[in-house]
Amino acid sequence: MYTDSKILKSLFYIQLFSSFLVVVGHFTASALSFTDPFWIVALNQISRYGTVLLTIATGYLTAYSFEAKSPTAREFFSGKLLYIFVPYLVSGVLYHYLLKKGMPHTAQDFTNIILGKTGDHLYFVFMICQYYVFAYLFRRVITKRNILYVIWILLGIQYVYINYIHQGWFGLTTRHMLPSWIFTLYMGHMLYWYRESILSFLRNNRSILTLMTGVSTAAAIFFVVSNKLYVAVHLTFVFATLLSFLVLMVFFLERVDRLHIKFRKGLTYFIFLFHSAFLIMFKDYLFAKYGEVAWLFENTWYSLLYLLLIIGCSCLLALMLVWLVNKLERISKTIRQTRRQLYTTK
C-alpha cells in the first residue's frame, strides 16, 4: 500500500537524487571547458534531468500543502520567505562576492542578486518564487476538477512562451520566467491529485512499468548521443523526465522501508543553493596554487575524486545549515511560548 507518508519519503529521495544531478551538471560544465571525454559529456546531458525532477516534485508538494494544510496567505508566504527567499538572497550575495571579489554595493548589484543573476543556477529559485505567488493566487481556479483540461492550456503557454514570446527582458533568460516551466510544475499538481489512480495502475501493471522504464532509459541514451542539446524546459525533455519521475517514484516507494536516510527539511535545497560555491572556491585555489586545472579534468580518477569532494562538502554544509535552521526554529518557538505564558499570567 502506497501511503501518503511513504510517497512523501520517496519524493525526498527523488529530490536528494536530483540535487546530486544538479551538482554533477555544474561539475561537468566546468570540466567541459578543459576536456570532453564521452563520460563527461554523457553525465552533463543526464544531469539536466535534475532540475526538471525538482520542478515536478515542487508542484507535487505545493498541491499537497494546499490540500493537507490549507495555509493562509500569511502562513504560506512567511514560510517561503524564511526558508526559500532569505537563503536565496544570502546565496546571491555569496556568489557575487566569490565572482566579483567584493561585496555588492551598487543598485545594479542588488538587482542582479534579486533576479538570480549572480549564480548560473539561481534562475531556478527566482522562477520558483514567481510560481509560489501564482500557485497561491490560482489555487481555487486550477483544481483537480479541471486540471485535465487546464493542463493542455498550460502546455500551450509553455510552448508558445519559449518559442515565440520571450525576448530576454532585463537580461533574463527563458529559464528565469514562470511561463517556461508552468506546464512542468502543474504536472506535479496533477500527479498529486491522481496519485492513487496512477500508482495503483503501475503497481498492478508491472509490464507497463517495465515498458516505461525501458522508454525512460532509451530517452536518456538518446539525449546523450543526440547532436542537439535538449535544455530543461524543452517539452520533449519534460515528457521524458515525467516518465523517469514516475519510475523513480515507484522505485523508491518499494524500497522506502529499507532506506534509512532521515528526512531533513531544507537539505536538498541547501545542496542546490550552495554547491557552486565549492566549485568556485576550489577552482580559484587550484589556479592560485598550480596556475591551471586542466590536469585535474584530463585524469578520470582525479575528476571523480574532485566530484566526490564537491558533493561531500555540499552535503556537509547543507547538514550544518539544516541544524542551524532547526536550532533557530526551536529558539523562536521557545520565545513565542514564553510570551504566551507571560501574557496569560497577566
Report on the structure:
The structure is a single chain. The protein has 346 residues and is mainly α. The protein has one domain. The protein has 14 helices and no strands. Helix 3 packs parallel to helix 6. The relative contact order is 0.14. One of its GO terms (cellular component) is plasma membrane. The chain crosses the membrane at residues 12-34, 46-66, 78-98, 121-138, 147-166, 178-195, 207-225, 231-254, 266-282, 302-326. This is Acyltransferase.
Number of domains: 1
| SS-derived structural category | mainly alpha
Oligomeric state as shown: single chain
Distance between the termini: 51 Å
Beta-strand fraction estimate: under 5%
How large, in whole angstroms, is the Cα Rg? Answer: 21 Å
Could you tell me the number of beta strands?
0
Contiguous runs where pLDDT drops below 50 for at least 5 residues: none
Elements, N to C (H/E)? HHHHHHHHHHHHHH
General shape? globular
Number of helices: 14
The average pLDDT is 91
What share of the residues lie within helices? over 70%
Query: Biggest β-sheet, characterized?
Result: none
Protein name: Acyltransferase
Main location: membrane
Membrane topology: Multi-pass membrane protein
Family: Belongs to the acyltransferase 3 family.
